[in-house]
Amino acid sequence: MATWDAAYINDLPDSAFACIDAGGELDDGGRTVPRSLRHYPHHNAAGNLDLPHLRAALSRVAQEATTSCGVGHLRDHAQEEDVGKLATQPEHKQFAPHDLKLDEAGSITFAFAQLNVVDKDGDVTWPGAFPAKDVPMSAYGHTSWDGALPVGKGSISEQGAWAVFTGQFFIETVAGRETHATLKALGPLAEYSYSYDPLTFDYVERDGRTVRNLRGLDVYEVSPVLIGAGIGTHTLAIKSGSPGPDMPYAEHLSWLREAVEAFIDRTGEKAAWRASEGRGLSVATRAELADLVKQLETIDALAPGLAAILEATDPKRAERLHRTEIEVLLGAARLNGVPI
Length: 340
Prior knowledge:
340 residues, 4-stranded mixed β-sheet, single chain, 3 domains, alpha+beta
């Protein structure tokens, strides 16, 4: 957002402001004095609407410490330009996870915001913006705001380059079970949203567009939704924990493959995040990763055993063996002068 200093704002015409309190007078230029009677500048000196300052006005207009005059005028601009809501209404930010895994226990973990990237709403969420707190999981489409019972609960926290929700569906309730079943059926099509108020933010110009830096948020709830708008967000797991002996074999195999892939992705993100701060992985982390690499190298020794199982269970193996036996018999017959 371009900086408007006091001198620039003082020189703006009255029409640049959302409202002007009574009791003032006009100077020789037709501007109200004292200048303190003018509130929420959002048009520039040329008379054009300035979207960053409109957004700033929308965020301030309903705060207790400021006057609320001009709300209607700002709301009209907001609707025309589709630049957001008044601060009295929580904002929603939506995201599309992937790699969905789900079992009957109903526990869920997903990354719901990637830090330090410009999302589809034109916002950058900074590290430290998310509070560590417990939040409910709203009924589908944030309808718990309208009275529908929540379908679960959990906690949010920042983990490396991500904000993560870890929670549990209310499986013992009808709404919890139905939402759980729906998300299980949707699989990677399942998407989520969270509602929040921006507590601390500012605007900057980046690559020819206005970007909002979200530096402090108050998150109220998360909810399954239809449309996602996040960047790179994903479901880490929806399951009861590590697989036990009762987990179906196919699910165990899928869990193992996806867990390894997710861990490699997370390690890369952690390394990239620390590199962006001019730091590398800690000595302890590198030592643990080195030990893990040594353990993974032993998989090479296990590979022949798994390959043998695959070969033995190949439905075409019998056909190949039969063909080989025939070829051996034919060869022996030719050697013995049997015409074929």
